[in-house]
Amino acid sequence: MKKKKAIKIVEEKLPKKRFEHSLRVAETAVKMAEIFGGDAERVEIAGILHDYAKYDGLSKLYQKVTKYELDNALLAYNSEILHGPVGAAIMKHEFGVDDEEIYLAIYHHTTGRNQMTLSEKIIFVADYIEPGRTQPGVEEIRTIVFEEQKLDKAIYEISKRTVLYLVEQDHVIYPLTIDCLNYYNLEK
Ligand SMILES: [Fe+2]
Ligand SMILES: [Fe+2]
């Protein structure tokens, strides 16, 4: 999919604030691709598209998990997790986006996983640090990315914060998120 088309479908689908977040994730991802040797064009498209399914209702998300034969275990989770895998499947099956790295980057942006491709890593981190983000500790992650230039360390720190938050909220944690935490703890 070309950039222009990606922007068009996301702008039509998402509320303005989320559309603008998507563009900032894409811009951040391009910047990161230059630093870490990634494919700028690919992560730009993945960044624009990553939140496409963010506001689909839970029943619609569930339907697509079944229709596109995604991991059935996903059905125990909420849209915060589901919009990644489902968004990836929508792009693949409904928009003909046939690039595996873009698929994986959209798919795992909500959970992370062990052994991510470079595009997955970039989108996972860019989503967390794009300039519109203001969560506590975000500046520390930006320093790790842009000054220390340690991508795996950034992934570990993001996973750690996410898991701590989820535990604090008594949420069940998707197993890939734990895999991500453990794997990048050893890689960092
Ligand atoms: Fe998202
Ligand atoms: Fe996002």
TrEMBL record:
GO terms for molecular function: bis(5'-nucleosyl)-tetraphosphatase (symmetrical) activity; metal ion binding; nucleotide binding. Keywords: Hydrolase, Iron, Metal-binding, Nucleotide-binding. It catalyses: P(1),P(4)-bis(5'-adenosyl) tetraphosphate + H2O = 2 ADP + 2 H(+). Its EC number is 3.6.1.41. InterPro entries: Diverse_Catalytic_Enzymes, HD/PDEase_dom, HD_domain, YqeK. Gene3D superfamilies: Hypothetical protein af1432. Residues 18-132 form the HD domain. This is bis(5'-nucleosyl)-tetraphosphatase (symmetrical). The lineage of its organism: Bacteria, Bacillati, Bacillota, Bacilli, Bacillales.
